[in-house]
Design a protein that fits this description.
Layout lengths: L3 E8 L3 E5 L4 E2 L7 H11 L3 E5 H7 L7 E5 L9 E4 L2 H11 L5 E3 L3 H7 L5 E7 L10 E4 L7 E8 L7 E7 L2
Parallel strand pairs: 1-7, 1-8, 4-5, 4-7, 5-6
Antiparallel strand pairs: 2-3, 2-9, 8-11, 10-11
Amino acid sequence: MDRIFMIAAMSLDRVIGLHNGHHFILPWGDNYSLDRQHFREVTLHHTVIMGRNTFDSIGLALPQRTNIVVTSHPVNASGIEVAESLQDAIALSKRLNPRNTIWLCGGSRIYRDGMNIANNIELTVIPEKYCETDSMQKISFPEIGKNWERLSTITHPLDGQLRIIRYVRTR
């Protein structure tokens, strides 16, 4: 069985980012660096697959990982592989690093399509809510359907506020 995980951080109201018409941002910024540390630890030495907007918000390849960007446009950055669809990205990852765990790390389209492909979800819940404004549109994590079972919920031991919820696909 393929090891395909989705990893995301979302607010209490399912927000994974805000879009101002030009750029995508994490609304919580650097306020939850332990979430970024967790992301780094679990994805290190594996494959990360992301959409073009997510890649553009990061701006560079994540070190010590195979980075694949799903886009129909060229990406001019070192350390980046490009695929035109999520299915192509997964196939490319299997060719490049057949033993790696594949981590789907955003954005919203990758998560939506990943709900039908991934075996597991690793979801950090940020204890905040965010309002949509005239200049900022909320981008949300998709609803987790009945074909997923919650495996565990842990509170980050160093933070006490962040919850990490793990789900497994049941069908």
